[in-house]
Amino acid sequence: MWSPTECSKCLRKNPSNMMTDLLGLSILELCYIGASITFILGLKMLSSPDKARKGNLIAGYGMGLAIIATILFKEELTADKWLNYTLILAGLIIGTVIGTRMALKVKMTAMPQMVSFFNGMGGACAAVISLVEFDHLRHGQETESGMLLVILLGLIIGSVSFSGSIVAYGKLEGKIGDKALPAGQFINIALLILLFGLATWMVVVGCSEMSFIYALLFASLLYGVLFVMPIGGADMPVVISLLNSFTGMAAAFGGFLYGNQAMLTGGILVGSAGTILTVLMCTAMNRSLTNVIIGSFGGGSNSSSGKEGSQETVKEISVTDAAILLAYANKVSVVPGYGLAVAQAQHTVHNLEKILEEKGVELTYAIHPVAGRMPGHMNVLLAEADVPYPKLLEMEDANDSMNSVDVVLVIGANDVVNPAAENDPNSPIFGMPIIKVWNAKNVIVLKRSMGKGYAGIENELFFHPKNRMLFGDAKDSLEKLIAEVKNL
Amino acid sequence: MEELLSLFYENREFIFLIIVSVFLGIEVISNVPAVLHTPLMSGANAIHGVVIIGSIIIMLQADPSNYYALILGFLAVILGTLNVVGGFVVTNRMLEMFKKKSK
Question: Considering CB atoms only, which of A47, A121, A265 is closest to B36?
Answer without folding.
Answer: A47
